[in-house]
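quick one before i forget lol
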Amino acid sequence: AETKTHKSNHSRSPSFVRVTSETLNSTKMPEEESKQELDIDHLQDLVAQQGDTVRALKADESPNQAAISQAIETLKQLKIDLNAEITRRKASGDSMIKSKEDFRVKVANSLESRLFYIPSFKIYGGVGGLYDYGPPGCAVKANVQKIWRQHFVIEESMLEVECPSVTLGTVLKASGHVDRFTDLMVKDAKTEECFRADHLLGDRLEELIADPATRKDEKAEFEMLYARLDELKEEEMKMALKRCGCVSPETKNELSDPYPFNLMFPTTIGPSGNIQGFLRPETAQGMFVNFRELLYFNGGKLPFACAQIGQSFRNEIAPRAGLLRVREFTQAEIEHFCHPTKKDHPRFNEVAQVELNLFSQEAQLQAGKKEPFRMKTGEAVEKGIIANETLAYFVARTHLFLKELGVDMQRVRFRQHLRHEMAHYAQDCWDAEIECSYGWIECVGLADRSAFDLDAHSKASKVDLQAYELFDEPVEEVIFEVKMNKQILGKSFKKDQKFVIDALTSLDEAAAAKIEKDFEDKGETDLENVQGIDGGKATITKDMVIEMKKKTKKVSGRNFTPSVIEPSFGIGRIMYCLFEHAFYVREGDDENKAVFKLPPQVAPIKCTIFPLVNNAEMNAASHDIYKSLTKLAVSVKLDTTAISIGKRYCRTDELGVPFAITIDHRTIGHTSTPKDGTVTVRERDSCEQVRIKVDDVAKFIADLSSGEVEWSRATASLEKVLNTAE
């Protein structure tokens, strides 16, 4: 996955539950599904009840054979009805899956044929999880990143950095990636083909939950297991795979027990090969290790946010689903540093009324149907559903960003991580999930990571990564003056002596009392969480401390380690979901025509220019308009091919180009058509056409392309043209 919480590829509600009519024509409405599920449950209950009735009649001291025979016949008929309904439901489910697969193939074929992206090293057979972006794909990606920068970096006054993709091994050791950045893997017991355990289990759970023959109690069990899929530990995963009867997908062979596989690409730095490095699995660590310099650059003031867009690398076990799970991808991450107890946000009122689609912990774990709910951002903070204002602010800003890109907001939800899914240090975590034909896909991770990252790097590097808080008024604090025997202390701790002294001089009253008691009882004490020392633990003997005095003094401020709120965006995942949401097929006279309904701001090319026929005058006029548009930084394509205008429209629609200019006989004049210096402009989705003066067309297209004005308003006073070329 491209976001921070890398394991979350599965939807938390099975992907077959909701399929929109906008993408798949032959799907059932949710109301139909609920009714059918109730019918199945009712029939299963009736079969169970009738079975009890038959057993009770047989157990009677004076059994009535006629009544028993009648009860058995009723039971048989109920079973026939149940099996018939199960068969019908399975056929309906197969039809829905086929519709989703057909739709997915159409989208993929259009994307690859128009060179949005293709498998890397294609002429050599390619390799899983690596893709090349073609010209339109690069343009869409650049536009998405441009909107992201405007929406976050510029509007939020963030500090943008760019750090190397090759990362020092000690950095990733401190962050925990070397030891814990793993996925559970299983192998085919005979062929040794590798699979991600949670993928196999998730696919199997979807089958079992969708199977009408699954009993109601089992279905509830499987749904709960599906909700917990990302938090299963090694032993739990082993038991779950066996419980669900998971086997190797192709061979049906048994699977090995699951075991952890580290997802990082190792490398060495320098010719000697002595410096261990890795291709970075995320962009975040470069921002954490530069915190001290960024804080200084920002004048020592908190809060502030740092941002970075760059490539990340993960050696996925079984990459699949196109751009959704790849081995190299683009991340856009933000690290918002703030005071650990002051997480209000100065601009929170701007988003307090934004309505979000929230899938909270409670909603995921409730009995029965598990569904998200609508709630305004401000209310979500007031009720404690989202932990604090700053996290909620970024959730709402993410909602607005996805909306600006053109994502279908009816198919976006913010799912809260379950308690066991979150790291022990995390305060609260949410994922922005977008629904596509693969189910609900995590595209953005938003986490309150407390002070974990800065603390970890401070301890490992032995460099202070703290900020200073100046109080409004000086406050009295109880402190302990500790007089130490530096000679003995130095022999034991050498260069780490400073960190021990800092820890001893910052004791609170309870810690000081514990030290004195330990000295009395056993002559030594253990200091915990000593910043700068490996493991954070230091054993202090009584002879190292000459005297401890309790004093009260006024202090004007103090040092503290900031908390981090981290939004992490997977650019490729967002793009793929956007492609699916934008795709539709327009019915034509002789063939269906694929269209990507991309917003002008995102579209790879804003406008195409077509001379009606290939002659010198029309070509010259086309080149003049081309130059005027490029001077306004509008991406444009000039097409002078001899094919019909209708076919040229169709070709650009499949690229998602929103506008087309046609130079015709009225533009340059003709024997039967007087020259009026106008051109036609055609809009992709409505296929409407208007005429506008050549001198005005460049600014007209520029305004439409920037999203500053909508087509209907911009064309209200213009001459409408009857469309005959579609």
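fyi Residues 1-38 have pLDDT under 50 and may be disordered.
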